[in-house]
Structures are given as C-alpha cells and as structure tokens.
Model the fold of this input.
Amino acid sequence: MDGHYLHIGGQHILYDPVRLGAPGADLFDPAALAAAGRLAGRPEGGRGSALFITLDGGIQAVLRPYRRGGLLANLLGDRYLRAPLAYTRPWREFRMLARLKREGLPVPAPLAARVVPDGLIYRGDILVERLTDTETLAEALTRRALEPGQWQRVGEAVGALHRRGMDHADLNAHNILLARDGTVHIIDLDRARLRRPGRGWQHRNLQRLERSLRKLAGERDGFHPLDTDGLEALLDGWDRRTRADMIPE
Done:
C-alpha cells in the first residue's frame, strides 16, 4: 500500500510518513492553516479552490479540495457518493501519483489525502508538493510565445505519461507546468487512470489540450496561440517514442 493510514477525528488520512510525518486533524482546514500563518496564496486559474501552504520544515505544498465541475457542480458541489476508501478520488489520485513519481515520471509527489464520510456521501482533499519556480502553460503564453524547443518538451512530458498508460481526464493549459530549469510537469490527476496505451484516448488528450489553448486565445488579449511550428514541435516531442509503443484500441 502506498502511504500510511491514519484515522483521526472522523477523518481517514493517507500520507507520506517520510515527507510529512504523522499529520494532525487540522492539516486540511483552511481556517486553521490561516490562523497558523501557513497560507501562501492560490494557484493561477483553472484549479478551483486550491491553496498554496507551507508545512513544517519549509515544505511547499498545494492543498486541493475535490469539487465537481460541469452540470453537477451547483447541485452536489464537494459531495461524492460514499465508497470504499480504495475507490475514493483522493485515495486513487494519491496512489497514482505515488506510483508515477516512484517511476520517475513528471508529476508532483503526493503528501497526504483525506476522506471525510458523512452518511451516504464523502468529501475529500489532497495535498501534493508544490513545484516551485514554475508557471502554468496558460500563464507562460499570456506573457510570451514559446520557442519550438519548449513545445517539444511539453510533448515529451505528455508522451512519457502516455507511454505509461496514464489517461489524463482534463489535460489543459492550466495543468501543465513549465519550470525555470526547462523541465515540464503534469498536475491535477483527479479522474486520471492507467490503461493500455492506444491511439484513441491519447489523441483525445491532445485534442483537449488544443481546445483549451484555442479557448484561452479567444479569452485573453495578447495571448500567444499555438501556431503551426509549435504544434509540429509538440507532436514531434510526443511522437518521438510514443508512436512505436502505442497499441491500437
């Protein structure tokens, strides 16, 4: 089992004992974190009510509550139908991140996940490491055009996860981080799943990313769109090793 389990104050918590130690019940409470002076801002758009926080030892982290999107957002908000812990969204994302990180793939390390049952429903949160000295792809393109080499590295990061079989449910310009050192990371793996590599779902991931870039180009003045050279570079990075490994669905 990835992580250690703790049951405290009606909360079920899965955590990394090496990075975090045994967490207290207030680790996921924004009010308690604010009172302790641990809040450090919010991520750029597209990531709901996530918070940047500082933990003991100076560890920088992102706290993200699980909230529904789409048509169910107003009706159900942060409530999910109760399920065994292994099948809840926080548990699944924590374990997937732990596995992918252990394999050296470009995702943040999970620190803790929480499930709070209440009758037939539950609420949940996840705490992951904050990747510092980064900006989202959306932020970067609002400021400047990307060089083909940068687009290629974006494609390489997505391709590495595709070869592993990671189907990202919401690959968009807010969920790709560009680091100052040139590396690229993929975040927010809620609802992602590991599956057999195949052209169909991999192409749908790329199409979703392209749609998000087109949407931002229509919403933000001065946004630098994905041009033909950038698209070719992205696909070249993605396709360099991915094509040979893909199995038709």
Q: What stands out?
A: The radius of gyration is 18 Å. The chain has a mean pLDDT of 91.
